[in-house]
Design a protein that fits this description.
The chain has about 130 residues and is of the alpha+beta class. It has one domain. It is about 65% helix and about 15% strand. The protein has a 3-stranded antiparallel β-sheet. The longest helix is centred in the C-terminal third of the chain and has 36 residues. It starts with a strand and ends with a helix.
Amino acid sequence: MKNYNIYKHPNGKIEAVKQGWSWPAFFFGAIWALIKQLWMVAGLIFAYAIISTIIMESMTPSYDYYEYGGGDPSQALVLQSISTLIQLGIAIYLGVKGNSLREANLIKRGYECIGNINAVNPDSAISDALKN
C-alpha cells in the first residue's frame, strides 16, 4: 500500500499524488513533466538538453580532427561525463521532488487537498476518496 494525497478541483476533477519517490519522473523526466502539465519543468529539461547538445557539438572536434593529430580525445570524454552526471542529477532531483512539484502545480491550478489515503494505486485512492 502506498500513501496518496487526494486533490479536488472546484469543477469536480480529482487527482491522487503518491508521496515519496517518483519512478516515472526519474526515468521519463520531460515526458512525465509534460503529461503532468509541469510546463516549466519540461521546458527547463528541454532547454538543458538543447544547450548541452550545442556545447558538446561546438567544443568536441570531429573524429577526423583527432585522426590527423589535432586535439585531445579525452576532452570529449570529460565533457560527455560532465553532461551525463548533470543528467543523472536532474533525474535524481525529479525522482525525489517530482511528486512535490506536481502537488504545488495542482494547488496553483486551483486544486485543494481533501485528504490522505493508503491505497494500492492512484485509481484505487481516488475510488476510496469518492466513497468517503
